[in-house]
Design brief:
The structure is a single chain. This protein has 113 residues and is mainly beta. Helix content is 0%, strand content 58%. The protein contains no helices and eight strands. The strands form two sheets. Strands 1, 5, 7 and 8 form a four-stranded antiparallel sheet that branches. Strands 2, 3, 4 and 6 form a four-stranded antiparallel sheet that branches. The radius of gyration is 16 Å and the shape is elongated. This is CTHRC1 C-terminal domain-containing protein. InterPro entries: CTHRC1_C.
Length: 113
């Protein structure tokens, strides 16, 4: 509603990463298709060291997690807010999922500066 405010965003729900060897995935918010630049990106990562290749098994952990932060510099008007899953730089990609067998929530709140 205001051009001089910040958006507080919160995701709360299940995050899962699965892999046979070391892997990393990153969950992050976008605003109108771009990551927050002010003050910093709003993100969380999950890194797994390794499964057990000799037993042909994988690590498959579902975690209740939250991703939360503030984003400034967004103009007044309709804002498209999304949460995405991407890769971590310099780490192999795993098999990631968001939400499983529980309620997931995204809360968005405008805060005055």
């Amino acid at each position: 509603m205001r051009s001089h405010s910040a958006l507080r965003v919160l995701f709360s729900g299940s995050l899962r990463l699965k892999c046979r060897s070391a892997c990393c995935q990153r969950w992050y918010f976008t605003f109108n298709g771009a990551e927050c630049a002010g003050p910093l990106p709003i993100e969380a990562i999950i890194y797994l060291d390794q499964g057990s290749p000799e037993l042909n098994s994988t690590i498959n952990i579902h975690r209740t997690s939250s991703v939360e932060g503030l984003c400034e510099g967004i103009g007044a008007g309709l804002v498209d807010v999304a949460i995405w899953v991407g890769t971590c730089s310099d780490y192999p990609k795993g098999d990631a999922s968001t939400g499983w067998n529980s309620v997931s929530r995204i809360i968005i709140e405008e805060l005055p500066k």
